[in-house]
Amino acid sequence: MRVHIVSDVHGRAAELSDIGNGADVVVCLGDLLLYLDYEDPTKGAFAEIFGPEVTAENIRLRLAKRFDEARELVTDAWFKRVERTGEDDRFALIEQIADRQYAEIFEALPDDAVFTFGNVDLPHVAQKHIKPGQRFFDAEVVELDGKRFGFVSGGLVSPYRTPNEAPVEDFDRRVQQVVRQAQELGGLDVLCAHIPPSIPEITFDVVAKRFEVGSKSLVAAIEELQPTFNVFGHVHQPMYPRYQLGRTQCLNVGHFRSRRTPFVLDL
Ligand SMILES: [Mn+2]
């Protein structure tokens, strides 16, 4: 059985329509929206709202971890924009752009793909663009082609304040639901989440030079269930893309926006 997996699509619709070629099952692990493109200050929702100069400066400050200054810059730029345009609902503006991005992404995503959301997603905006065969899973175990896949969506609360972050208790509760269901069914083959288990080697991003937030309850779930694979994305340039935890291979499937090709898993 051949599983094609993508994560961190971040607006990259172009190659998404081909990811199902030769696959028995297609899985998407979320982060479909492009908000801020650290490689290109002309792309993404933020650049559309604020223009490339403010975007480039925001990226510079965030990379330097000067978050307070970045927030000040954005607040200031926003009020200047309100004065100029009369538009004063920033959230509505972001949702309009997200709506357009989701229309494109779900059109390109294969009709039979299964998916979950990441931390850079707005599930309520995505809803109306999901095609009938595209199935969303969270806190659930499903059988695909005879193998059991468990899904946990979204991110955990972080200093980066991305839109789809859950408090630890809420995230842990959903991991626990997967654990219980898997135990009732007699085990799990693949544990799928947007974020990695909390292990330093696989949560450190060598370009951003920071630890992304991983989950301790995912570590516990893997130790308990020992699935063959744990797949995730979230860390765009990881120090290590894979890690062996007991019998489980933990695999970062990569940043689709730059990879442009799916990760292939043979089961
Ligand atoms: Mn991402």
Please give the share of residues in helix.
25-40%
Percent of sequence in beta strands = 15-25%
**Structurally, how many domains make up the residues?**
1
The CATH homologous superfamily is called: Metallo-dependent phosphatases
Number of beta-strand segments: 15
Shape: globular
| Secondary structure tally, helices | 9
Instruction: List segments where confidence is low: pLDDT < 50 over at least 5 consecutive residues.
Output: none
- The CATH topology annotation reads as Purple Acid Phosphatase, chain A, domain 2
The topology string of helices and strands comes to EEHHHHEHEEEEEHEHEEHEEEHE
Rg estimate, integer Å:
18 Å
Helix/strand-derived category reads alpha/beta
What ligand molecules are bound, each kind once?
Answer: manganese (II) ion
Main β sheet profile: 6 strands, mixed
Mean pLDDT level:
96
| CATH hierarchy class name | Alpha Beta
Main sheet: which strands, in order across? 5-6-9-12-14-13
Give the assembly state of these chains: single chain
Distance between the termini: 5 Å
Just name the CATH architecture: 4-Layer Sandwich
What is the element layout, followed by pairings?
Elements: E1 2-6, E2 25-28, H1 45-50, H2 52-63, H3 67-85, H4 90-108, E3 114-115, H5 123-126, E4 135-136, E5 140-144, E6 147-152, E7 155-156, E8 165-166, H6 168-185, E9 190-193, H7 200-203, E10 204-205, E11 210-211, H8 216-225, E12 229-232, E13 242-245, E14 248-252, H9 256-259, E15 263-266
Helix pairs in contact: 2-3, 6-8
This protein binds manganese (II) ion.
